[in-house]
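Support reply, case 0932

Customer input (verbatim):
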Amino acid sequence: MQDLHTSTVARLVRAHLGDEIGAVTLAALNMTPALLSDEGERVSRASMATALGAALFRTVLDGVPSAAGYVGERLEIDTRITLDHGALRTILFPDGPTGALPGGQEAFARILRPLGYVEAAQYPLPRLRMTGHAWCHLDHPEDILQYFVSELHVDQFDAEFAAAAHRVFDTSLDPLSAQAKAVLDRFAAEGSVPFAEAEALLPVLVSAFDRAHEPAFEDDYETLLAQSKEAAWIATEGNAFNHATDRVADVGALADALRAAGKPIKDKVEHSASGRVHQTAFRADMVERPLRRADGAPVTRTVPGSFFEFITRDTLPGSEALDLGFDSGNATGIFAMTRTP
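Our regenerated output:
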């Protein structure tokens, strides 16, 4: 067993982010020793999944000031972040792909499955006309972050909305190269790949968690916004991490402390129907994003970006295992964090 600095995960992350930023990013994360081995010139699917999670965490720190501030304050008191899950939103058309991307969550299922993830559960989100899909890692389910991938069902909106959605999202490109797909296939077949292949794959996978389509026309953005704040969010942010989540011991106490400190925390903590999963979040930071006028001229708009979430998971009845589930009601409440104030 090796330490954080010489592990396969660290080598991958530092190769992607650079030595300095990579080291800082890794030092902010609480990782189980089981994920910090030196695998030599092979990279297991668990190490690849962990490195991807760390790299995506970096995108949140770089793009979400409130998240970076929170993480910095935790590190000041020698408390690291336990990445519980990351969330992203996708568009699902009833009649085919999303531009050059596979439709809905399949754009990410094709990445997650080869890296050792399985779809653990589905969560209907009827108020949002969406469905959430939880992806959990087979090898280290409590220690490698999960993904909560939601699909927005375009066929549950009217024809005007569908036409606008097609104009926006049909421009989507596929960030995965043929080489990247071949390495994912090797992960799926063998469970590991040579280090050089994993090193080349990581930035390609990270690029998939971004906006893959052209900036939307203002009129189309307004059409989406009028019927679905979530669709409008995808129109400007694409498939970026909607949020990353810190697993904490007592989310209620943390929320009270953050609120007292004047942080942009949600008004209340969401509790699952089981009573075992407790969640709250910062409100999304506002960001500047490009749109296009009818004549194609660029214009900038201030819109909600991503945010940071907090979760406490109790153990399952009669077990020491954490309840790794989600909850439709909780998710619906958390989704509101990206709505314009």
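We compared this against your earlier run and they match. Two observations from our side: The first strand starts at residue 42 and ends at 44. The longest helix spans residues 45-63. Please reopen the case if you see a mismatch on your end.
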